Amino acid sequence: MKKLVVVFASVLLFASCTQTKIGYVDVEEIMKEYDATKDVEAALKVDQEKMGKSLDSLSAAFQGKVEAYYKKAQRMSAKSRQTKEAELQQEQQVIQQAQSQAQQVLQQKSQEGIEALTKTVDSVVNAYATTNKFNMILGTSGNGTVMYGDDAMNLTETILDVLNTSYDEKK
Questions:
Q1: Which end of the chain has fewer CB atoms surrounding its CB within 10 Å, N or C?
Q2: Does the predicted model carry a pTM greater than 0.85?
Q3: What's the burial of 13, exposed, middle or buried (CB within 10 Å: 0-12/13-18/19+)?
Q4: For residue 99, which of 62, 124, 131 has the smallest C-alpha distance?
């Protein structure tokens, strides 16, 4: 009889335990389909094109100077050639530095954009989990951490809808 009571009490205790609510999101899909991501990428592309045009004009002007130098080089004295070559090398270094700096600026802007997007996604997932009483929401990307998940547990589209709706309201 005592064993039956212990078993019955264990069953009641087990039944009264709250069930863990878990979901997952495909982070790669969210970042790909999030409207804010598309806007950040478009802004970066515009910046890249502006910098590219500026650098192209510097390179074209430099190329013109190099061509002019080669046309006149045979008629120049050795000292004049040496001076002109030094000037051209210095200008080439300035252009290379400008290219490197432009690349660094674009990388920094990209990193800042990704960080801001990640913070937004994290806060939306956190708010969604709290509101909908999830104990845990896992993130996966491609062949990542969730080896199997019931489609009912996949919150990717729901979170993406919340993100895009929120982003559209801010525009």
A1: N
A2: no
A3: exposed
A4: 62
